[in-house]
Amino acid sequence: MSYQENLQRIKELNLKYRYYKSIESLFEYDQWSALPAEGAAYRQQTAAFIGEQKNALYRGDDACRAEAYLSGVRPEEIEDGIERGLVRTFLARRRSAVRTPEDTLRKYNLMKADCMNAWKQAREQKDYRVFQPWLRQAFDLKKEIALAVNPDAPAFDTIVGMTDEGLSVKEVSEQFDVLKKGLKELLDRLRKNGQAEEDAIPDSSPEQMAAFAQRLARELGYRPERGGFNDRVVHGFTSFMGPRDARVSTYQSGSYNLIFTCLHEAGHAMYSSGSSGAVIEAGLWGGIEGGFHEANARFFENMIGHSRAYWDYYYPQLQEEIPVFRGIPAERFYRVCHQVKPTLKRISADEVTYSLHAILRFELERDYFAGKLQAEDMAEAWNDKYEEYLGIRPSNDTEGVLQDMHWAGDYIGYFQSYALGNIYDGQILEAVKREIPDMEEKIRRGEILPVTEWLGRNIWQYGCCYTAGEMIRKLTGGGLDARPFLRYLEKVYCGD
Ligand SMILES: [Zn+2]
Hints:
2 domains, binds zinc ion, Neurolysin, domain 3, 21 helices, 3-stranded mixed β-sheet, mainly alpha, 3% strand
Protein backbone atom coordinates (compact mmCIF):
# COMPACT_ATOMS: atom_id res chain seq x y z
CA MET A 1 0.00 0.00 0.00
CA SER A 2 1.25 3.46 -0.89
CA TYR A 3 1.78 6.46 1.33
CA GLN A 4 -1.38 8.08 -0.07
CA GLU A 5 -3.47 4.97 0.60
CA ASN A 6 -2.22 4.80 4.18
CA LEU A 7 -2.93 8.47 4.58
CA GLN A 8 -6.49 7.88 3.40
CA ARG A 9 -6.82 5.04 5.87
CA ILE A 10 -5.72 7.12 8.88
CA LYS A 11 -7.88 10.00 7.73
CA GLU A 12 -10.93 7.75 7.84
CA LEU A 13 -9.98 6.57 11.32
CA ASN A 14 -9.52 10.16 12.41
CA LEU A 15 -12.93 11.20 11.09
CA LYS A 16 -14.62 8.38 13.00
CA TYR A 17 -12.65 9.35 16.12
CA ARG A 18 -13.93 12.91 15.76
CA TYR A 19 -17.53 11.72 15.44
CA TYR A 20 -17.17 9.94 18.77
CA LYS A 21 -15.58 13.01 20.31
CA SER A 22 -18.49 15.14 19.12
CA ILE A 23 -20.90 12.76 20.82
CA GLU A 24 -18.85 13.09 23.99
CA SER A 25 -19.11 16.90 23.74
CA LEU A 26 -22.84 16.67 23.34
CA PHE A 27 -22.99 14.43 26.42
CA GLU A 28 -20.93 16.90 28.45
CA TYR A 29 -23.13 19.81 27.38
CA ASP A 30 -26.22 17.84 28.31
CA GLN A 31 -24.74 16.68 31.60
CA TRP A 32 -24.25 20.23 32.84
CA SER A 33 -27.46 21.68 31.49
CA ALA A 34 -30.26 19.13 31.22
CA LEU A 35 -29.44 15.58 32.33
CA PRO A 36 -31.78 14.58 35.19
CA ALA A 37 -30.25 12.97 38.30
CA GLU A 38 -31.80 9.59 37.62
CA GLY A 39 -30.55 9.61 34.06
CA ALA A 40 -26.91 9.79 35.13
CA ALA A 41 -26.22 6.08 35.64
CA TYR A 42 -27.39 5.01 32.19
CA ARG A 43 -25.61 7.96 30.62
CA GLN A 44 -22.39 6.85 32.26
CA GLN A 45 -22.73 3.40 30.69
CA THR A 46 -23.43 4.96 27.31
CA ALA A 47 -20.47 7.31 27.61
CA ALA A 48 -18.17 4.46 28.65
CA PHE A 49 -19.27 2.50 25.57
CA ILE A 50 -18.62 5.45 23.27
CA GLY A 51 -15.19 5.97 24.87
CA GLU A 52 -14.28 2.30 24.29
CA GLN A 53 -15.41 2.44 20.65
CA LYS A 54 -13.38 5.59 20.11
CA ASN A 55 -10.17 4.05 21.40
CA ALA A 56 -10.81 0.67 19.78
CA LEU A 57 -10.50 2.35 16.38
CA TYR A 58 -6.78 2.59 16.98
CA ARG A 59 -6.38 -1.02 18.09
CA GLY A 60 -7.84 -2.61 14.96
CA ASP A 61 -6.13 -4.20 11.93
CA ASP A 62 -6.37 -1.06 9.82
CA ALA A 63 -4.50 0.95 12.44
CA CYS A 64 -1.95 -1.83 12.82
CA ARG A 65 -1.17 -1.90 9.09
CA ALA A 66 -1.02 1.87 8.85
CA GLU A 67 1.37 2.01 11.77
CA ALA A 68 3.67 -0.56 10.17
CA TYR A 69 3.97 1.70 7.14
CA LEU A 70 3.90 5.15 8.71
CA SER A 71 6.29 4.53 11.57
CA GLY A 72 8.96 4.41 8.86
CA VAL A 73 8.04 7.97 7.84
CA ARG A 74 9.42 10.82 9.92
CA PRO A 75 6.62 13.37 10.51
CA GLU A 76 9.06 16.29 10.31
CA GLU A 77 9.90 15.22 6.75
CA ILE A 78 6.30 15.52 5.58
CA GLU A 79 5.93 18.87 3.90
CA ASP A 80 2.18 19.28 3.89
CA GLY A 81 0.92 20.58 7.25
CA ILE A 82 -2.36 18.66 7.16
CA GLU A 83 -0.69 15.36 6.26
CA ARG A 84 1.92 15.85 8.97
CA GLY A 85 -0.81 16.58 11.49
CA LEU A 86 -2.67 13.42 10.48
CA VAL A 87 0.41 11.22 10.78
CA ARG A 88 1.51 12.75 14.10
CA THR A 89 -1.89 12.42 15.76
CA PHE A 90 -2.37 8.92 14.36
CA LEU A 91 0.93 7.61 15.70
CA ALA A 92 0.33 9.14 19.14
CA ARG A 93 -3.20 7.70 19.43
CA ARG A 94 -2.10 4.32 18.13
CA ARG A 95 0.75 4.15 20.63
CA SER A 96 -1.52 5.12 23.49
CA ALA A 97 -4.28 2.69 22.40
CA VAL A 98 -2.06 -0.38 22.17
CA ARG A 99 0.25 0.34 25.05
CA THR A 100 -2.22 1.48 27.70
CA PRO A 101 -2.69 -1.59 29.94
CA GLU A 102 -6.40 -2.36 29.80
CA ASP A 103 -6.69 -3.61 33.38
CA THR A 104 -4.99 -0.48 34.77
CA LEU A 105 -7.22 1.75 32.68
CA ARG A 106 -10.30 -0.14 33.87
CA LYS A 107 -9.16 0.19 37.48
CA TYR A 108 -8.63 3.90 36.94
CA ASN A 109 -12.04 4.40 35.33
CA LEU A 110 -13.83 2.41 38.02
CA MET A 111 -12.15 4.46 40.72
CA LYS A 112 -13.15 7.83 39.26
CA ALA A 113 -16.60 8.15 40.82
CA ASP A 114 -15.36 7.12 44.28
CA CYS A 115 -12.43 9.49 43.94
CA MET A 116 -14.75 12.40 43.21
CA ASN A 117 -17.02 11.45 46.11
CA ALA A 118 -14.05 11.27 48.48
CA TRP A 119 -12.97 14.73 47.34
CA LYS A 120 -16.45 16.13 47.99
CA GLN A 121 -16.58 14.50 51.40
CA ALA A 122 -13.09 15.75 52.27
CA ARG A 123 -14.13 19.27 51.27
CA GLU A 124 -17.15 19.14 53.55
CA GLN A 125 -14.99 17.98 56.44
CA LYS A 126 -12.18 20.40 55.47
CA ASP A 127 -9.87 17.44 55.88
CA TYR A 128 -7.45 16.42 53.15
CA ARG A 129 -6.80 13.06 54.87
CA VAL A 130 -10.20 11.81 53.65
CA PHE A 131 -9.08 12.35 50.06
CA GLN A 132 -5.41 11.44 50.44
CA PRO A 133 -5.60 7.68 49.67
CA TRP A 134 -7.62 8.45 46.54
CA LEU A 135 -5.18 11.07 45.37
CA ARG A 136 -2.35 8.58 45.79
CA GLN A 137 -4.25 5.91 43.88
CA ALA A 138 -5.20 8.28 41.04
CA PHE A 139 -1.66 9.62 40.69
CA ASP A 140 -0.07 6.19 40.86
CA LEU A 141 -2.41 4.62 38.28
CA LYS A 142 -1.80 7.58 36.01
CA LYS A 143 1.93 7.03 36.44
CA GLU A 144 1.59 3.34 35.61
CA ILE A 145 -0.28 4.19 32.41
CA ALA A 146 2.25 6.88 31.43
CA LEU A 147 5.20 4.52 31.89
CA ALA A 148 3.47 1.85 29.82
CA VAL A 149 2.72 4.30 27.00
CA ASN A 150 6.29 5.57 26.95
CA PRO A 151 8.79 3.58 29.01
CA ASP A 152 11.64 5.77 27.75
CA ALA A 153 10.38 9.04 29.23
CA PRO A 154 9.76 10.14 32.82
CA ALA A 155 6.06 9.60 33.67
CA PHE A 156 5.33 13.28 34.24
CA ASP A 157 6.63 14.23 30.78
CA THR A 158 4.20 11.77 29.21
CA ILE A 159 1.32 12.96 31.41
CA VAL A 160 1.97 16.64 30.63
CA GLY A 161 2.24 15.68 26.96
CA MET A 162 -1.29 14.24 27.08
CA THR A 163 -2.56 17.81 27.59
CA ASP A 164 0.21 19.93 26.07
CA GLU A 165 1.60 17.81 23.28
CA GLY A 166 5.25 18.20 22.43
CA LEU A 167 6.35 20.09 25.54
CA SER A 168 8.92 18.69 27.94
CA VAL A 169 8.73 19.22 31.68
CA LYS A 170 12.22 20.74 31.51
CA GLU A 171 11.18 23.37 28.97
CA VAL A 172 8.03 24.25 30.90
CA SER A 173 9.94 24.43 34.20
CA GLU A 174 12.54 26.76 32.72
CA GLN A 175 9.95 29.22 31.46
CA PHE A 176 7.94 28.97 34.68
CA ASP A 177 11.08 29.92 36.60
CA VAL A 178 11.47 33.01 34.41
CA LEU A 179 7.80 33.86 34.88
CA LYS A 180 7.91 33.28 38.64
CA LYS A 181 10.91 35.52 39.10
CA GLY A 182 9.39 38.27 36.95
CA LEU A 183 6.03 38.07 38.72
CA LYS A 184 7.68 38.25 42.11
CA GLU A 185 9.55 41.41 41.10
CA LEU A 186 6.37 42.90 39.66
CA LEU A 187 4.39 42.12 42.81
CA ASP A 188 7.12 43.68 44.95
CA ARG A 189 6.97 46.82 42.84
CA LEU A 190 3.20 47.00 43.03
CA ARG A 191 3.33 46.52 46.77
CA LYS A 192 5.87 49.33 47.10
CA ASN A 193 3.82 51.66 44.90
CA GLY A 194 0.82 50.91 47.12
CA GLN A 195 -2.53 50.17 45.59
CA ALA A 196 -5.72 51.41 47.20
CA GLU A 197 -8.32 48.71 47.68
CA GLU A 198 -11.34 49.41 45.51
CA ASP A 199 -14.91 48.87 46.65
CA ALA A 200 -16.70 46.09 44.87
CA ILE A 201 -19.10 47.02 42.09
CA PRO A 202 -22.68 46.04 42.92
CA ASP A 203 -24.45 43.46 40.79
CA SER A 204 -27.01 44.41 38.16
CA SER A 205 -29.81 42.39 36.69
CA PRO A 206 -28.53 39.07 35.29
CA GLU A 207 -30.67 39.50 32.17
CA GLN A 208 -29.14 42.89 31.35
CA MET A 209 -25.64 41.67 32.07
CA ALA A 210 -26.09 38.58 29.90
CA ALA A 211 -27.47 40.65 27.03
CA PHE A 212 -24.53 43.06 27.20
CA ALA A 213 -21.89 40.32 27.57
CA GLN A 214 -23.32 38.32 24.68
CA ARG A 215 -23.41 41.38 22.45
CA LEU A 216 -19.73 42.01 23.19
CA ALA A 217 -18.91 38.39 22.34
CA ARG A 218 -20.74 38.77 19.01
CA GLU A 219 -18.90 42.01 18.29
CA LEU A 220 -15.59 40.18 18.77
CA GLY A 221 -16.66 38.07 15.84
CA TYR A 222 -18.38 35.14 17.55
CA ARG A 223 -21.22 34.10 15.28
CA PRO A 224 -24.23 32.46 16.90
CA GLU A 225 -24.80 30.55 13.63
CA ARG A 226 -21.70 28.65 14.69
CA GLY A 227 -22.88 27.96 18.23
CA GLY A 228 -24.94 30.11 20.50
CA PHE A 229 -25.35 30.81 24.19
CA ASN A 230 -26.74 28.74 27.00
CA ASP A 231 -26.68 30.68 30.26
CA ARG A 232 -28.01 28.11 32.69
CA VAL A 233 -24.97 26.21 33.93
CA VAL A 234 -22.77 26.63 36.99
CA HIS A 235 -19.45 27.44 35.34
CA GLY A 236 -18.39 28.78 31.96
CA PHE A 237 -17.32 26.29 29.32
CA THR A 238 -17.46 25.75 25.58
CA SER A 239 -18.54 22.58 23.83
CA PHE A 240 -16.83 21.74 20.56
CA MET A 241 -19.59 19.75 18.93
CA GLY A 242 -18.65 20.15 15.32
CA PRO A 243 -16.35 22.12 13.02
CA ARG A 244 -18.92 24.90 12.77
CA ASP A 245 -20.69 24.32 16.06
CA ALA A 246 -19.06 25.57 19.27
CA ARG A 247 -21.58 26.40 22.01
CA VAL A 248 -20.85 28.80 24.81
CA SER A 249 -22.28 27.96 28.22
CA THR A 250 -22.26 30.46 31.07
CA TYR A 251 -23.89 30.91 34.47
CA GLN A 252 -26.47 33.54 35.36
CA SER A 253 -25.00 36.46 37.19
CA GLY A 254 -25.40 40.20 37.55
CA SER A 255 -21.65 40.68 38.10
CA TYR A 256 -19.57 42.41 35.43
CA ASN A 257 -17.29 39.35 35.62
CA LEU A 258 -19.81 37.65 33.39
CA ILE A 259 -18.53 39.88 30.57
CA PHE A 260 -15.03 38.44 30.91
CA THR A 261 -16.35 34.88 31.10
CA CYS A 262 -18.28 35.47 27.88
CA LEU A 263 -15.25 36.95 26.09
CA HIS A 264 -13.13 34.02 27.28
CA GLU A 265 -15.56 31.36 26.11
CA ALA A 266 -16.18 33.18 22.83
CA GLY A 267 -12.41 32.98 22.27
CA HIS A 268 -12.47 29.21 22.73
CA ALA A 269 -15.54 28.97 20.48
CA MET A 270 -14.15 31.11 17.64
CA TYR A 271 -10.87 29.21 17.70
CA SER A 272 -12.65 25.88 17.68
CA SER A 273 -15.04 26.77 14.85
CA GLY A 274 -12.55 28.69 12.70
CA SER A 275 -10.74 25.87 10.86
CA SER A 276 -10.36 25.97 7.07
CA GLY A 277 -12.36 23.68 4.79
CA ALA A 278 -9.34 21.46 4.05
CA VAL A 279 -8.56 21.08 7.74
CA ILE A 280 -12.18 20.19 8.49
CA GLU A 281 -12.18 17.66 5.70
CA ALA A 282 -9.17 15.95 7.32
CA GLY A 283 -10.90 15.97 10.72
CA LEU A 284 -8.22 18.21 12.24
CA TRP A 285 -10.53 21.08 13.20
CA GLY A 286 -10.95 22.54 16.64
CA GLY A 287 -7.57 23.95 17.58
CA ILE A 288 -4.57 22.83 19.59
CA GLU A 289 -5.64 21.46 22.94
CA GLY A 290 -4.29 22.51 26.33
CA GLY A 291 -2.48 25.76 27.00
CA PHE A 292 -2.71 27.00 23.45
CA HIS A 293 -6.50 26.83 23.40
CA GLU A 294 -6.54 28.58 26.73
CA ALA A 295 -4.32 31.29 25.23
CA ASN A 296 -6.87 32.03 22.52
CA ALA A 297 -9.60 32.39 25.13
CA ARG A 298 -7.54 34.47 27.54
CA PHE A 299 -6.43 36.69 24.67
CA PHE A 300 -9.99 38.03 24.36
CA GLU A 301 -10.59 38.00 28.09
CA ASN A 302 -7.38 39.84 29.00
CA MET A 303 -5.26 41.24 26.19
CA ILE A 304 -8.32 42.76 24.53
CA GLY A 305 -11.10 42.58 27.12
CA HIS A 306 -9.11 44.14 29.95
CA SER A 307 -7.38 46.78 27.83
CA ARG A 308 -7.94 50.48 28.33
CA ALA A 309 -8.67 50.92 24.64
CA TYR A 310 -11.46 48.35 24.81
CA TRP A 311 -13.18 50.09 27.72
CA ASP A 312 -12.62 53.54 26.25
CA TYR A 313 -14.94 52.28 23.54
CA TYR A 314 -17.33 50.11 25.52
CA TYR A 315 -17.63 51.76 28.92
CA PRO A 316 -19.98 54.55 27.77
CA GLN A 317 -22.18 51.84 26.27
CA LEU A 318 -22.08 49.83 29.49
CA GLN A 319 -23.16 52.94 31.40
CA GLU A 320 -25.95 53.59 28.97
CA GLU A 321 -27.29 50.06 29.07
CA ILE A 322 -26.82 49.13 32.73
CA PRO A 323 -27.73 51.85 35.25
CA VAL A 324 -25.40 50.67 38.08
CA PHE A 325 -22.38 51.86 36.07
CA ARG A 326 -23.64 55.41 35.61
CA GLY A 327 -22.40 56.34 39.06
CA ILE A 328 -19.00 54.69 38.53
CA PRO A 329 -16.38 56.66 36.61
CA ALA A 330 -14.57 54.76 33.85
CA GLU A 331 -11.26 55.14 35.67
CA ARG A 332 -12.61 53.43 38.76
CA PHE A 333 -14.04 50.55 36.74
CA TYR A 334 -10.66 50.11 35.08
CA ARG A 335 -8.89 50.08 38.45
CA VAL A 336 -11.33 47.50 39.84
CA CYS A 337 -10.69 45.26 36.83
CA HIS A 338 -6.93 45.60 37.39
CA GLN A 339 -6.84 45.20 41.12
CA VAL A 340 -3.91 42.99 42.08
CA LYS A 341 -4.45 41.13 45.29
CA PRO A 342 -3.20 37.64 46.12
CA THR A 343 -6.07 35.29 46.84
CA LEU A 344 -6.23 31.68 47.93
CA LYS A 345 -8.42 30.71 45.01
CA ARG A 346 -7.16 30.31 41.48
CA ILE A 347 -10.51 31.02 39.86
CA SER A 348 -10.84 34.42 41.53
CA ALA A 349 -7.20 35.39 40.95
CA ASP A 350 -6.22 38.57 39.12
CA GLU A 351 -4.24 38.61 35.90
CA VAL A 352 -0.87 39.09 37.63
CA THR A 353 -1.07 36.42 40.33
CA TYR A 354 -3.09 33.90 38.28
CA SER A 355 -0.09 32.13 36.77
CA LEU A 356 1.41 31.50 40.20
CA HIS A 357 -1.61 29.39 41.18
CA ALA A 358 -1.05 27.22 38.14
CA ILE A 359 2.73 27.03 38.46
CA LEU A 360 2.64 25.87 42.05
CA ARG A 361 0.24 23.02 41.28
CA PHE A 362 2.47 22.00 38.36
CA GLU A 363 5.46 21.97 40.71
CA LEU A 364 3.64 19.85 43.29
CA GLU A 365 2.74 17.32 40.60
CA ARG A 366 6.29 17.37 39.24
CA ASP A 367 7.69 16.69 42.72
CA TYR A 368 5.19 13.90 43.33
CA PHE A 369 6.01 12.08 40.09
CA ALA A 370 9.72 12.52 40.72
CA GLY A 371 9.25 10.79 44.10
CA LYS A 372 10.21 13.92 46.04
CA LEU A 373 6.78 14.51 47.53
CA GLN A 374 4.45 11.97 49.16
CA ALA A 375 0.65 12.03 49.08
CA GLU A 376 0.48 12.50 52.86
CA ASP A 377 2.55 15.71 52.62
CA MET A 378 0.59 17.28 49.76
CA ALA A 379 -1.67 19.58 51.82
CA GLU A 380 1.25 20.96 53.79
CA ALA A 381 3.40 21.41 50.69
CA TRP A 382 0.49 23.23 49.03
CA ASN A 383 0.13 25.65 51.95
CA ASP A 384 3.89 26.27 52.08
CA LYS A 385 3.94 27.19 48.41
CA TYR A 386 1.02 29.61 48.79
CA GLU A 387 2.88 31.29 51.58
CA GLU A 388 6.09 31.43 49.58
CA TYR A 389 4.62 32.61 46.24
CA LEU A 390 1.59 34.62 47.29
CA GLY A 391 2.30 35.53 50.88
CA ILE A 392 -0.93 34.00 52.18
CA ARG A 393 -1.65 30.66 53.81
CA PRO A 394 -4.89 28.67 53.60
CA SER A 395 -6.46 28.22 57.02
CA ASN A 396 -7.96 24.84 56.10
CA ASP A 397 -7.69 22.18 53.39
CA THR A 398 -10.88 23.23 51.60
CA GLU A 399 -9.34 26.66 51.00
CA GLY A 400 -6.12 24.89 50.07
CA VAL A 401 -5.40 21.58 48.38
CA LEU A 402 -9.09 20.63 48.05
CA GLN A 403 -10.22 23.78 46.21
CA ASP A 404 -10.07 22.38 42.66
CA MET A 405 -11.87 19.30 41.43
CA HIS A 406 -9.05 18.70 38.94
CA TRP A 407 -7.09 15.99 40.71
CA ALA A 408 -10.27 14.14 41.59
CA GLY A 409 -11.62 14.55 38.08
CA ASP A 410 -8.79 13.13 35.96
CA TYR A 411 -7.15 16.50 35.30
CA ILE A 412 -3.70 15.43 36.39
CA GLY A 413 -0.80 17.09 34.58
CA TYR A 414 -3.22 19.77 33.40
CA PHE A 415 -2.51 22.87 35.48
CA GLN A 416 0.52 23.98 33.49
CA SER A 417 -1.83 24.77 30.62
CA TYR A 418 -3.37 27.71 32.51
CA ALA A 419 -0.01 29.43 32.94
CA LEU A 420 1.19 28.38 29.48
CA GLY A 421 -1.88 30.14 28.08
CA ASN A 422 -0.60 33.42 29.50
CA ILE A 423 2.91 32.84 28.19
CA TYR A 424 1.63 32.10 24.68
CA ASP A 425 -0.59 35.19 24.88
CA GLY A 426 2.39 37.45 25.47
CA GLN A 427 4.01 35.97 22.38
CA ILE A 428 0.83 36.15 20.30
CA LEU A 429 0.24 39.78 21.31
CA GLU A 430 3.69 40.80 20.10
CA ALA A 431 3.14 38.91 16.85
CA VAL A 432 -0.23 40.65 16.28
CA LYS A 433 1.27 44.06 17.02
CA ARG A 434 4.07 43.52 14.53
CA GLU A 435 1.44 43.30 11.80
CA ILE A 436 -1.17 45.64 13.28
CA PRO A 437 0.92 48.30 15.01
CA ASP A 438 -2.15 50.52 15.53
CA MET A 439 -4.12 47.71 17.19
CA GLU A 440 -4.94 49.83 20.25
CA GLU A 441 -6.20 52.79 18.23
CA LYS A 442 -8.34 50.42 16.23
CA ILE A 443 -9.83 48.85 19.34
CA ARG A 444 -10.46 52.30 20.80
CA ARG A 445 -12.66 52.95 17.75
CA GLY A 446 -14.45 49.64 18.24
CA GLU A 447 -12.63 47.94 15.37
CA ILE A 448 -11.86 44.59 16.92
CA LEU A 449 -12.47 42.44 13.88
CA PRO A 450 -9.04 43.08 12.30
CA VAL A 451 -7.47 41.40 15.35
CA THR A 452 -9.97 38.52 15.28
CA GLU A 453 -9.29 38.07 11.58
CA TRP A 454 -5.53 38.05 12.19
CA LEU A 455 -5.96 35.20 14.67
CA GLY A 456 -8.26 33.40 12.23
CA ARG A 457 -5.76 33.68 9.41
CA ASN A 458 -2.60 32.92 11.36
CA ILE A 459 -3.81 30.43 13.95
CA TRP A 460 -7.41 29.21 13.81
CA GLN A 461 -7.57 28.06 10.19
CA TYR A 462 -4.91 25.41 10.91
CA GLY A 463 -6.99 23.62 13.55
CA CYS A 464 -4.77 21.10 15.31
CA CYS A 465 -2.39 20.42 12.40
CA TYR A 466 0.50 21.78 14.44
CA THR A 467 1.62 21.37 18.01
CA ALA A 468 1.69 24.53 20.12
CA GLY A 469 5.49 24.61 19.85
CA GLU A 470 5.33 24.47 16.05
CA MET A 471 2.67 27.15 15.97
CA ILE A 472 4.61 29.52 18.23
CA ARG A 473 7.68 29.03 16.05
CA LYS A 474 5.58 29.81 12.99
CA LEU A 475 4.28 33.01 14.61
CA THR A 476 7.44 34.29 16.29
CA GLY A 477 10.40 32.39 14.84
CA GLY A 478 11.34 31.26 18.36
CA GLY A 479 10.29 28.86 21.10
CA LEU A 480 8.29 29.15 24.30
CA ASP A 481 9.25 32.43 25.98
CA ALA A 482 7.77 33.95 29.15
CA ARG A 483 9.35 37.38 28.71
CA PRO A 484 6.76 38.94 26.34
CA PHE A 485 3.99 38.20 28.84
CA LEU A 486 6.02 39.85 31.60
CA ARG A 487 6.59 42.88 29.35
CA TYR A 488 2.86 43.09 28.77
CA LEU A 489 2.09 42.97 32.50
CA GLU A 490 4.71 45.60 33.27
CA LYS A 491 3.23 47.93 30.68
CA VAL A 492 -0.34 47.47 31.94
CA TYR A 493 0.32 47.45 35.66
CA CYS A 494 3.38 49.72 36.01
CA GLY A 495 2.98 51.85 32.93
CA ASP A 496 6.47 50.88 31.66
ZN1 LIG B 1 -10.68 28.39 29.12
